[in-house]
Amino acid sequence: MRKAIKMFSLLLASVLILPFAGCTNSRAEYEIGICQLVEHSAHDQATQGFMDALSEELGEENIHYDIQSAQNDISTCTSIINQFVSNDVDLILANATAVLQAAASATSDIPILGTSITEYGVALDIEDFNGTVGGNISGTSDLAPLSEQAKMITEWVPDAKNVALIYCSAEANSDYQVKVVAEELEKMDIKANLYPFADSNDLAAVCQKAAEENDAVYVPTDNTVASNAGIIDNICRPLKKVVIAGEEGTSCGAAALSISYYDMGYTTGKMAAKILRGEADISEMPVEYTNAVKKYNKELCDELGITVPDGYTPIN
User: Fold this and answer.
1) Which of 9, 52, 86, 263 has the fewest CB atoms within 10 Å, counting from its CB?
2) Which pTM does this prediction carry?
3) Nearest CA to 264 among 43, 5, 17?
4) Domain range holding 13?
5) Considering its fold, how many domains does the chain have in total?
């Protein structure tokens, strides 16, 4: 899989040399627009899994992928999606919440599959979400059980009385995650303290304050956090503060209740094949989930002298 991911990274890099230029292939039966909000390992794996599954199902020679990265810029994301709609692609892969939101606003006709989306009801402002979006949207979720993530904090820091929850306030799904985790911590008589930051520019100051004032730190599945995990690690590691992360790609975490983003993307590719072959109606396809596994960062735990609780496997 590492080889496949490396190949994808090289492909994405080559595409970005000419942003938005795209390319055409009149011989391809299917035109697939892929927009990834930002480049980091989790999203890269999801995109690669999607492409591998779809190519296996439909034949690589029958598909042309237009792969674009928005470089974590919302306006760029909107421009990319609008280009896909203008090109009348057969299907859009929206890799991350902001991309899904942009795609949903841009078209009600072209099938849209989301991936790396935490909670579709929150992302698309759907009240009483029942698991099926309807219309031209479906996809896969990277949400691991939030109650289990809260319990993990007590496994790693049994004496914790105050826990900092650090997240980007601009990401709706991050706001949702920390609120649920906070409620779960409060049930265990642990004080949950929210530390939102607007963007990467104020992350360091917010993280420093959070680490100094609390016994442990939790970060959700959050694009801005994942892209700036080094900032959090550089602050929390010297203070010997354990960080529990929403996904293993967030490298500052000592542990995570993690899913395989490659597997999630692969499932999304299988869904895309059914839609393109006319075997499934996207409006009736429920959002699909991937099993989560407890994992730990061996290098970080060794350095901090942390005893790993039972039931965890090392992150590869």
Assistant:
1) 86
2) 0.80
3) 43
4) 2-142+260-285
5) 2
